[in-house]
Specification:
single chain; 130 residues; mainly alpha; 2 domains; MAVS; phosphoprotein; ubl conjugation; ZMYM2-like/QRICH1 C-terminal domain-containing protein; isopeptide bond
Length: 130
């Protein structure tokens, strides 16, 4: 199976997944419009085994070829930028908001948290103070 755009270029894996998610959403909306209560999931229903198998094969091939595997990474925070945050009074311990900002900044910096999602999943029991 091969999937290409109008310029005959191979789609990236994320794009293919988004197209499939769009198909799933369209199916769900059409079934709701016709008052069909039973869900139909292209990722789980046995009627779509061949579809899933083909999609998995294409995604594995793209991965092997290095197409669409690039993870976005945040820029490293330089010492100069960190100093500016302190100098501009965005970090500090003289108010609850600044203390919160400082804790989040330091945790992210020292624990290499890459996204807001990773920060969001932090819990008090994640850390142990010795």
């Amino acid at each position: 199976m091969e999937v290409r755009n109008e310029q005959r270029e191979v789609y990236q894996s994320g794009t293919l997944y988004t197209v499939c998610a769009g198909i799933q959403r369209c199916i769900r909306e059409k079934r709701l419009a016709f008052d069909i209560a039973e869900p139909l999931d292209i990722y789980k229903d046995h009627h779509f085994n061949l579809f899933r198998s083909s999609l998995d094969s294409v995604l594995k091939d793209l991965y092997k070829r290095g197409i669409g595997n690039v993870k976005k990474q945040a820029d490293v925070i330089s010492e100069k930028l960190e100093e500016k945050l302190w100098d501009d009074n965005l970090l500090g311990d003289d108010s609850p908001k600044k203390l919160q900002n400082t804790l989040i900044f330091c945790l992210g910096l020292n624990h290499a948290l890459h996204s807001g999602q990773e920060h969001k999943h932090l819990r008090p029991n994640t850390f142990e103070i010795f």
